[in-house]
Amino acid sequence: MNDENTTPSGEDTGPAPGSSGSWSSKPEVDGTAPVTHPGLGVRGTLLFLWRQLTSMQTALILLMLLAIAAVPGSLYPQRSVNPALTDQFLEENGRWGEILDALGFFNVFSSPWFSAIYLLLFISLIGCIVPRVGVHLRQLRARPPRTPSRLTRFAGHTRIELPGADPNALIEQAHRALRRSRYRTEVREEKASRSVSAERGLLRETGNLAFHIALVGVLVCIAGGQLTSYRGQITVVEGSGFSNSLTQYDSFESGTWFDETRMPPFRFTLEDFRATYVQPGESGNVGEPRSFEADVLVTTPGQEQQSQTLQVNKPLHVDGASMYLLGNGYAPEVTVTDPEGTVVAEGPIITVPLGDMGYSSQLVIKAPDARPEQTAVVGFFLPTGTIDDQGPRSLYPDALDPQLALTVHQGDLGLDDGIPQNAYEVDVSTLTPVVGEDGDPVLIRLYPGQEYSLPDGTSVSFDGLRRYAAFDVAHDPFERWVLVSSLVAVGGLILSLFVPRRRVWVRVRAAEGGAVLEVAGLARSDDPMLEDDVKALATKLSTTQDGPPDTEPGQDRGGPSRGPEDTSEGSAQ
Predict the structure, then answer these.
(1) In terms of CATH architecture, what is 152-201+506-566?
(2) pLDDT digits (tens, 9 = 90+) for 314-348
(3) What stretch of H or E contains 518?
(4) SS (H, E, C) 523-557
């Protein structure tokens, strides 16, 4: 016999089909030839990454990450808001504080990782919105979809035979009814029938797009505000004034594009500050604040002086800035004289409330020019004071019985070291207290108008009492646009949630002596009312025709029973 791979003449014909050497043109997969896969290439890879970035799922994930990334900004002190508190946190936490600082946890909103999430979210939203806007615009210009050939598959399908009905009049009536219900409609001529195709609810997608566009607007406005805005805090004592310049602020922060030459040149004087509290016998907790009011006299170039009253959540608006009332406290007028008879400290001293209901406040006076040694006076101001087993404290926040409880310390205050210090704090552990004849530190208790002389010749007097108010001055040119974008976003979200998108079809077929009416609908979103509305439309059209219908909605007038595909009501697809 001849070999299976040769002809009778002995010619080699190659491998037989099905053998290891197949005639197929495809490469063998037997380990000798590598399996190759088509590569995406640089362009394909970039397109894939772009599609992933601009997907709605990615946008939602980035939005969640942005919210999570903002959490450290509320847990840790931010250097741009309170540098002193940030430095204190770093001193108290050592190595852990250094690690957090290196990671940017004290400058969260300007850190690279927060900015990266912010920018990725911004790009993702724009890449997601732009194609959808084009699709939506085409949908708005497009005609309603054609009427399906079988309406039995759709929600609320109703078939009614109407003896004596005019098919043309019935289709026109359906057209008018749907138009009155704010549907986009079109009458279509079909084989042996006429139909009305109607669609409503495109406003749902409009609202969805408006929400996302407004969200981009919010991001743009916040970024613009961060770059161009400024904010500063000031403390003003009654009778004193403020001029809007950088040197007048206690603390100040601004955006990268801020131009200090464009600060509005206004000034004001704090004429009076009033505070009222719940008194015994009134409803509420005794000592609870009821109101804070600051009377200011505002002067702006080219305008007359105006008297304004600031309250909490009722700021003062001038051209280019807004001023908010933040806090308040007491500023006792204290005079300190050194042993040589030189006045080394004089005037109202701003005290820092300790946070109790009675408004007990800490007082610190630094006198670096005192001789022979630098002097520090520390203690408490008590609006309605008492000193008992609990120590110096205030019983009521109003100045009913104002007192000072002080001690005097001498030594090097460290002001010449070149290291910035908190004006309202002093480290008394490095100082020596002034003692009396018994060797104990001298405790001073003063009422308004009193003076106390220490054994070394230093004297302290309580000359009077004023109040002070703390203000926040801010300017953000994008602030109103943030509000507008937020309102648009809320409005768009409401539309996208509550406007149902649906399609309704009405078909009328001429029959012997009358017409056959079919009505059905399709919900493009969650729409529990669609089926009832479709049946109501069918009932309305059938009852306005001459002669009663032979069947109830959803039923035929006799005849053979229908199969499953011809049931009067079907599920929406």
Answers:
(1) 2-Layer Sandwich (3.30)
(2) 998 888 889 999 889 999 999 999 999 999 999 99
(3) strand 514-523
(4) ECCCCCCHHHHHHHHHHHHHHCCCCCCCCCCCCCC
